[in-house]
Design brief:
- This protein is of the alpha/beta class.
- It has a domain at about 1-185 and about 225-250 and about 295-300: NAD(P)-binding Rossmann-like Domain (Rossmann fold), CATH 3.40.50.720.
- About 40% of the residues lie in helices and about 15% in strands.
- It has 11 helices and 13 strands.
- The protein has a 7-stranded parallel β-sheet, with helices on both faces. Strands 7-10 form a two-stranded parallel sheet.
- It is globular and about 60 Å long.
- Bound molecules: nicotinamide-adenine-dinucleotide.
- Nicotinamide-adenine-dinucleotide binds next to helix 1, strand 2, helix 4 and strand 5.
Amino acid sequence: MRILVTGGGGFIGSHLTEHFLQRGDHVVVVDDFSTGNRRNLEHLESNPNLRVINSDLGKTACVQEACHDVDAVYHLAAAVGVALIAKQPTQTIHRNIYPTQLLLDELRRHHLAGKPIPLFLASTSEVYGKNPKAIWNESDDLVFGPTTKPRWSYGASKAIDEFLCMACVREHQMKIVIGRFFNVVGPRQSGAYGMVLPRFVEAAMQGKPLMVHDDGQQTRCFAHVNDVVYAVTELMQHPQCYGQIYNIGSDSPVSILDVAKQVISIVNPKTSIEFQSYTDAYDEDFEDIRRRVPDLARLKKAIEYTPRYLLADIIQDVWKYKQRNAG
Ligand SMILES: NC(=O)c1ccc[n+]([C@@H]2O[C@H](COP(=O)([O-])OP(=O)(O)OC[C@H]3O[C@@H](n4cnc5c(N)ncnc54)[C@H](O)[C@@H]3O)[C@@H](O)[C@H]2O)c1
């Protein structure tokens, strides 16, 4: 197969790329390395089956070139991370919507010409916004805060991507699977854009205090990137999954304070925890989500899926990666 991975120079995209290359596929990566890193692909670059297009996907010519002669597309390129979103809301909205529109236009052209190309869209748990339900399933309402608070632009822009995809499914029966990722973590994730686990591990390694936002009682479910890559690629193997939306991740909630405590006990028991207000961490407009837990019933009905990694394993993996790549 020839596979296009947009955002393949990023954290999850580089793991997907590696998976396909190991399987013997040819992979075209499009990435402008805005938040990704060329180092994520360094170990793969000698593979003749990999082609990297260093370009912004928000250009028609780039999208046309990237989609030429591919058998499937995994669309992960996006502006990611709460810190980035709070600082650059215009970029977030633009990067998350416009390239998806161009990609869907191109895939629709192929589809109408008799060459349907299946698409996976990486969406996010952020589309549920602040829905007050304890566990979110794919049919639940999207509950966003006001447009005066930029953090909601991430979830809203990804929701527009989903609407665009569902419109293509409805109008043209295009083969599209949407996956809503819940806190994916693992080697190669950058802490530079507000992601909590790499931030904590880096701080512990440097002997600095772990900065926990607010009271640390927010809960999240952390999934190892290998489990997520498995789920994504499995879903795309099953034609009955086309036109569907799936939560993807782990459904074991843990408080951020407990994550900090586990990182300290595994990486460096001499470090400590400090608490920081959202206003100091982001800005005074910042609004967080207290609890974020997916209902995985639909995913487990579609494919064999049990997350294989415990949080302690994930912390070990991230730590080992950072030790190998220090400096
Ligand atoms: N990591 C998570 O926990 C998580 C959670 C929910 C959803 N997601 C989604 O998964 C996808 C991948 O996220 P990630 O964590 O690997 O982030 P990442 O920042 O590491 O990857 C995104 C990649 O897209 C590239 N990119 C962004 N805009 C581009 C453009 N216009 N043209 C070309 N390349 C562009 C970036 O350089 C980067 O390499 C994103 O769509 C994100 O919304 C991730």
